[in-house]
Amino acid sequence: MRKRFVHLSAISLLLVLAAGPAAGDTTEEPVGLILSAAGSKLLRAGTETLLAARAGDLLFAGDGLKTESGPASFLFCPAKAIDTLSPSGEVRLETKQPKVKTGKISEQPARACTLPQTLRVAVASQQHYGVSMTRGINKPEVPPTPRDKLPADVVTELAPFDAVLAGDPKDQAALVSEATVFENHKLMANALEQYYKLREQWPDAVWIKAKIFELEEALANQAAAATAATAPGGKTYALLVGISKYAKPELALQFANADASVFGQLLESPRGGGLPPDNVLLLTDEKATTAAVRNGFQDFLKRRATKNDTVVILIAGHGTVEVPGSKNAFILTYDSDPQDLTSTALPMAELQALFEEQLAKVGRVLLFVDVCKAGTIGTIHNTTVGSNVAQLGDVEGDLFGLLASRPKEVSLEGPQFGGGHGVFSYYVIKGMGGAADQNQDGAVDANELIKYVTGQVQTATNDKQHPREFGTYDNTMRLSDIRKPGINIAHWQMIFDSRSGEPRYLASTSFTGALFDDQTSDDVDRFTAAVNAGRLLPTDPSNAFAALQALQGQLIPEQYQERKNQLQVALENKAQEVLLRYLAGDERPQAQAAFQQGARYMEAARALTQESLFLEGRQDFFQGRALLFDKKFPEAAQLLEQSVRIDPGAAYAFNALGIAYLEQAQYDKAIPAFRDAIRRAQHWSYPLHNEALAYVETGDYKSAIRAYQEAMRLTPQYSYLPYNLGLVYQRLNRRKDAEAAYRKATALEPNSAEPYNALGTLKASEGKRSDAEQLYRESLQKNPNLLPARHNLALLLAAEKDRQQEAIDLWRENLRQLPDYLPSRLSLAETLAARGDNPAAIEEYRKVLAAKPDYVAARRALAGLLAKTGDAEAALAELRSVSQKDSQNPDVFEQIGDLEAGRQHPAEARVAYQSALGLKPDRAARKRIGDKLKSLR
Question: Which of 238, 403, 578, 817 is the most exposed place for a label (fewest CB within 10 A)?
C-alpha cells in the first residue's frame, strides 16, 4: 500500500458515547396519490390518528382512506387506474390492489401514473440544513437541460406524459410522472422544475417540499464539488464537543469536556497538525446544545469542507439506544431530555445519512468511539453503541475506526488518567502525542496507535475493557509528527478567548484570524452582544437581525454565513427551551405566551432558512398549541396536523393534537393521538397523563389507572401524576388509595397546594371536618390564589350556621380575584337565599346568567326567588325562557303552573300542568300534578 503522511488529514470522530445505531431509512415507491379528498380521512400505516386527507397526499401500501359525505379519487399505480371511493367508504391500500372494507370503488384508466421513490416516514431534522445554510444561497442557479438536448431514452419515457400535458399543462399525475422520470435519470434541474409547478397546485404537500429540498441541495452540492475540484490545497477543520455538565444533572459526567479541550490543544500544537484557531469549533457543556452540535456537523461537513480538506470531529458525552434492539439511537447533547430523545437529541441516523452523503467528498475518516458511561439514562436501560457505530465502516471512503470497548463492556473515566479523562480518550491522545511511536521513527501511524491503545486500556482496566478497530484503512497512515512540539496532557487547560477572557466555545466568533476595519469590528461586536444578550427577534431593541443586516456588505460570504448560522442556532436554542418545558407536562404548566414566543423564534429562524421543513414543523406546532388557549380548535388542529405530517416520527405534535380533541370531548380521536405520541416517545410521561384523562371521561378507569402507573414509573419525580391518580381513586371511592396517592404527591412537592386541597375534600367526604378545614387552610397558605381550595373551605364552613358569614366572605374573595368563577358565585347565591337575603341572592344569580345565559338551573332558582319577593311576572318570564331551552322538563311546566295558579290564572295553570303531564313524569309527580289540576276552579 502507498504510504500517506497526514496530520489527521481525515475526519476524526471521537465519540464518547453510551450507545446509538445509525442506519438511514430507505426510500420506497408509493402505490397511489390522492387527487381529490372531499373531506375524507387518511390513516397512515403505523399510526392510529386519522388525518384530514388532502389532494397531493402520497399513498403507500398499508395506508387507509375513509370517505365521509363525499367521494374521494386517487391514482392507484399498480393498476394504472384512477379509483373513486364512494361516500361513507373505507379502503386499505395494498401492493397489488386496494382492499375495500365498506362502500364501492369505481375505476377508470389513468393516462399517467409513475410515482417517485420517497421516504414513507420523513425525518424533519434531515430536511433542515438546506442550501441557504450550507451553501449560503437561496436556490441553485442550474438551468434544466433543454428538451432537444435530452437523451433519446428519456424522450421516449416522457412521450406519453407530454401528450397529456399538451392537453392540460396542469395535469398533476403527468407532472409527477415527468418529475419522476427526470429524477430517475439524474436530471435534477428538470425534475426540480416540475416539482415547482406541482408546489403551486399543492402548496401544503410535504413530500413535494421535501423533494424540492433534496433536489436543490443536490444541485448545490454538484456546483460545490465542481468548484472544489479546481480549488487550491486543502484546509483542516476541527469540531470538538465535550459534555460533562447536562441540563439534566443526573446525566453528568466528570471529564468529557477535558477530553474535548485537550484534544483541541493537541490539534492546535505543531505535533497534532497546527490547526489555526479559526478552524476549530469547541462546544462544551451548556454550549453543546442540539442545535449547536447539529450546526457544527452540517457546517463543517457540508458547507466548509471540500474534497481537498480535512475535518476532525470529536464528541465526548452520552449516547444511547432509546429502545434496545431498535434503530432509535442518539447522541445526547446538553439540552437533551431522555423522555423524548427524538425531539431533543441528535439522532445517529441523521449522522449516518450525513456521513453517507459527505464522507466521500472530504477524504479519509478517523473514527474513535469512547463509551464513557453505561447503566441507566433516565428510564432507559442503556445499550452499548459499539456494533452500531461500527456500521459506519460501510460508508464509502477510507475509514479508520477504533472503538473503546467490546459490547456490554463499560468504558471508564477517572482522575488517574492524566488528571481526569476517559481511559480510552486518554490513551488515544497520549498515543498520538508520541507514546505510541513504537519504532521510534518520529511519527505515530494507525497500526502503532491501535496496538498502544488496545494494550494500555486493557492493562489500566484490569482486562475489563478491550478496544477494537474497524473500517478499511492503510495501517501505515501517519497520525502525528512527534518531532514537533506537542502538549503536556497531565496539565491541560481550558482554551480562552484572548479578546474576552471567556472560554472559547465557538472559534468563529473569536475572530482571531480575521482583521476588520473599525466600523466592521464595531458591527461584529454589536451582533455578538445582541446574540449573547438574547435580543434575537427582529422586534427586539438593538436586535441581532439588524446587526446582521449591517454586516452583510462588510463581511466576505463565508464570514457572513457563520454569523447567520450563529443567530440560527441561538433562535433554535430558545425554541428548544419552550419544547423542553412542554415535555414536563402539568408539572410545569405553560401559558399561551410561551408557545407564542416559541412560534416567533421559529418564524425568525425560517427567515434565515426558508427551505427548512424542520423549522416549519416546529412553528406549526407552537402556533397550533397556542391557539388551543383561545379554543380555536379547527385552526389549531389544522396546524398541528401539518406539524405531524412534516415530522411524523416525533411525539410532541401528536400529543398536542390529542389535547385539541380532548378539549372538544372527542375522546375517540384523542386517545389514538395520545397512543401515537406514546409509541414515538416511550419514556415520555405527559401523553400517558393525557391518555388517562381521556380514559376517565369515557369511564375506563382501569386503563386510566394503568396509564398513570406507567407514567409514574417513567417520571417518579413528578408530583402531578400521583395527584391525578388520586383523583381517579377518589372518583371510584377508593379512599385509602386516593389518600396514599395524594400523600405521595405532597412528599414529592411539599409546596404544591393542589394535593392538600384534594386531601381536604377526601376528609370532608369522610365527615372529618376539622381535618378538612386544616388541609384547606394549608393549601391556601401554600397558594393564596388557589380558588378551589378557598371555595371548598367555604362550602365546609357554610354547613355551620354560625360560620356562614365566614363562608360568604371567602366566596366574595374568590369573586374578587376572578369574577367569572361560577362555583363560588352559585354557592354564594344559594347561601344568601338560604339565609333569607333574597335581593342579594337575586343579584348573584343575575350575574351567573349574564355569564351563562343558558344555565337552566340558575334561571329556575332565580325564578323561585323572584316569586318569593312577589315579582311573579318576572319569575314567569324566566321560566318561560327556560321552557324554550328545556322543553322536555316537566318540573319547569309544573313550576309555571304553580305560579299561574297563585296569580289566580286557572286556564294558564291548567295548560302548564297538562304540558307537564304530557312529558310523562314519574308516578309521584303525576299524582302531585293531577291533584293540582283537580284543585283548579
Answer: 817
